[in-house]
Every structure is written in C-alpha cells, then in structure tokens.
Design brief:
By secondary structure, the protein is of the alpha/beta class. The protein has 19 helices and 14 strands. Strand 5, helix 8 and strand 6 form a beta-alpha-beta unit. Helix 4 packs across helix 19. The chain is globular, with a radius of gyration of 22 Å. The two termini are 34 Å apart.
C-alpha cells in the first residue's frame, strides 16, 4: 500500500509544479518547499535539542500556539521548529519569533520523510488536529520519537473508521497519545483499538483567552469608531459580502463598519469598495483620509483582525455560506459580543454549541440578517446576553494546554 501511496504523492507533485504556473498560492506551495532541507541544515545542528510542532495552516497553528509558547517559556534551550503544509499559514508566521524556525513540511514521500526527520531529530513531534502523514509518522515511529496529536476531533465519516481505511488506520496507530476534544472522538478511537486518548477539549480556548491579556488598542480604530457602535465583519467571502454590503447601504443606524476580507486581492478590494455607498476608506489609505468622517473601513492588510474585534459591538464571521468554510468564531466571541454566521456550520463544534446557546446566530438570507442585526443594534439586553453567553462558554472550556503540557513534561 505504501508503494501506491508514494506513487500518488509523486504524481501529485508533478501536477502541482504545472499548476504553479497559473496559481500564485500553489507557486508559493511549490517554491517554499525547495528550501526546506537547506533551512534545516542552516538552523539545526546535531547538538541541538528540538521539538517539532506541525500545523496544516494558520487556524491549526493558532490552536497549537499555547503549547508552543509554554514550551518556549519552560524549555528555553530547546529549539522549537514549526512546520506548515499550507502557504496561508507559513506566509503569515514565517517571520514570527515565537518559534526558532518556521518551515514547510516537505511532500510526504519516503525519501523526504527520512531526510526531514534525520536533519530535525526531534525529541517530540506534535501534530495539531488533523494532520496524518503516513511516511512521516512511520519514520518518527521507527526512531522511537513520541508523537502527539492535540486538539483532535474525530467523526464517524472519516476514513479511519471505514472498512477500506486500513492504511490510514495504520498511520493513526503510530501516535503515542491523542489529546481529543470530546467523548465521541474517544469512542470512535476505541472502536479501532486505540485506547491511548485523553479528553482535554480544544487548545483554541486557551489561545483566545490569552488575547484578552494582550494590548488590543489600535490608534486607527480609536480615531475611526469615535465611540459609535461598531460592526466588525471578519474573514468574509463574496457570498458573505452580498449580505453585508446590502445591509450597510440600506441601514440608517449611526454605526461604524469594518470589513476584513479573507483574501486580499486588489481587484476584489476595489470591487467591494465600489459596491458600498457609504463613505469608505481602505486601511492602507488611512494616512491620507480623515477616519472620523468615514463610515466603513475595508481592511486590506493582514494580522490585525483579532485586535479589531476588540472594538466590535457585533461581529460577523465569514465562510459559512460554503461547506467547510467557516472561520474562527472564538476570536470575536472571547470579547463578549454576539457573533453572526452563515447557514453552513455543521462540523464546527463550538459554532454548533453556541448556536444552540444563542451566543452565535446563523442566518440564511438577507431578510434574516437584516432583522437580526437591527435587533442586536436596538436591543441592548439581547445583545448583552448573547455576548455573555459567548464569554462564559470560552471561559468554561479553558485548560486543554495545561493537560497537554503535563504529559509533555513526562517525555522530556
């Protein structure tokens, strides 16, 4: 089976090199991996003690960040290496000083896995949530390196629990320990003979809770909001923006609006700006425009959304008009504000639970969206109750990273 798997990886690599000519994101994916081994040789030597943390993309990295930060604080002489599968994670974090080295994970061929692990020689390998790479896991296991999967969540429709999923089940068996989000995941692992799991919840709750302790002030937001109510619309896609723009154009409330699109593409930013009838400023242009007079700010840079959420009275989180697309709802929820999402949120545990609790609200169309936002704007008690539900939910689910760290200490 490994022969077939490796063949698929090699064929995929061939086509990725072709697609890279037409896709900037795939081009980053391909070119970034050319320097992996060179970077490892440059930054890691045989005398170094290393811990390897792997994330698929930015969202998973945020889940693992509480662990990375605690490792760095407790083991300052150990080098922390963070790897990414996706450019959307690597490009944002590559200059971060939280880790000693940020790199890509090479494509999962047997040769790449052997070379990567030989150069890295980690004391522990920590994978976040979903990343299962058979060749890498096989190489780690053969080197007797402990492998942890943290903030994992399993569903019955995943391949590991199908009659034809033997190859991937075998890869899953390489993990030394699973730190999982819920009891259902534990039951599913038990059905395939894996009993080495601890229910800890999601480390993202620890991560977003830490946001409250940082300085979230932004001068441009102070100048922009001018103590008006603020509606922040984060990680939006065109499907979301149809609702948002329609509401902004028609609303008569004295409210400030911030739109932070998920993808920053100049022509799309221009398109979005042209659709809005109210006075609109791009964040990249604020030095040239009086913010106090603006009604809408479009965030055409990355890295500020979390702090911007701290100014919100209401938040909208994009992505839930497409399957599997919902972005992080906990980042705005931690500030004790109501959150609005689209209709497709199945599989996002915190969204499912907070919709039931009435801290997050799901809307299907313009009419529902307009009615809900108007009610949140006009009814302080309704808005306040929803925000309190969100803040309490996050506070009650903290602590996963403490349990993970207690286990890691036994391995070092």
């Amino acid at each position: 089976m490994f022969i077939l798997y490796n063949l698929v990886i090699y064929v995929s690599s061939f086509f990725l090199h072709i697609i890279a000519f037409f896709s900037p994101k795939v081009d980053l994916f391909v070119k970034g991996r050319k320097k992996v081994f060179e970077e490892l040789k440059k930054h890691i030597n045989a005398k170094d003690s290393t811990i390897w943390v792997h994330a698929a993309s930015l969202g998973e990295y945020e889940q693992g960040l509480p662990i990375v930060e605690k490792l760095k604080a407790e083991y300052p002489t150990v080098k922390i290496v963070v790897s990414f599968f996706s450019p959307s994670g690597y490009e944002v974090i590559k200059k971060s000083t939280t880790a000693d080295l940020v790199t890509y994970l090479p494509l999962d061929t047997a040769k790449n896995a052997k070379r990567f692990i030989k150069l890295l020689q980690p004391k522990i390998a920590i994978f976040i949530k979903y990343e299962i790479w058979p060749n890498v896991l096989k190489e780690l296991k053969s080197g007797s390196i402990p492998i942890l999967l943290i903030s994992a969540i399993f569903k019955s429709d995943q391949i590991y629990f199908k009659w034809y999923g033997g190859f991937m089940r075998n890869a899953l068996e390489k993990f030394s320990h699973f730190f999982i989000q819920d009891s259902e995941s534990e039951k599913l692992l038990n059905t395939i003979g894996l009993n080495n799991a601890t229910i800890t919840g999601d480390t993202r709750f620890d991560r977003v809770s830490e946001i409250l302790r940082q300085n979230n002030s932004l001068e441009f937001m102070d100048n922009f909001t001018q103590n008006y109510p603020c509606f922040v619309m984060g990680s939006t896609w065109p499907e979301d923006e149809e609702l948002l723009v329609a509401y902004i154009n028609e609303a008569s409330h004295k409210m400030k609006y911030v739109i932070a699109p998920h993808t920053i593409v100049p022509k799309e930013i221009t398109r979005l700006r042209q659709q809005i009838k109210k006075r609109t400023v791009l964040l990249s242009e604020i030095s040239e425009n009086p913010l106090a007079d603006a009604e809408v700010v479009i965030v055409d840079t990355i890295g500020l959304l979390t702090k911007i959420y701290s100014y919100a009275h209401i938040a909208y989180v994009g992505g839930a008009f497409t399957i599997g697309g919902l972005h992080n709802t906990l980042e705005p929820a931690v500030f004790g504000i109501p959150v609005i999402i689209g209709p497709i949120y199945s599989g996002f545990k915190e969204a499912e639970e907070l919709v039931k609790l009435r801290g997050i609200f799901s809307v299907r169309d313009k009419a529902e969206f307009t009615s809900l936002v108007d009610k949140l704007f006009l009814d302080f008690d309704f808005r306040s109750k929803a925000g309190t539900i969100n803040a309490s939910y996050i506070n009650n689910n903290k602590g996963a990273s403490i349990q993970v760290m207690n286990h890691i200490r036994t391995l070092l």
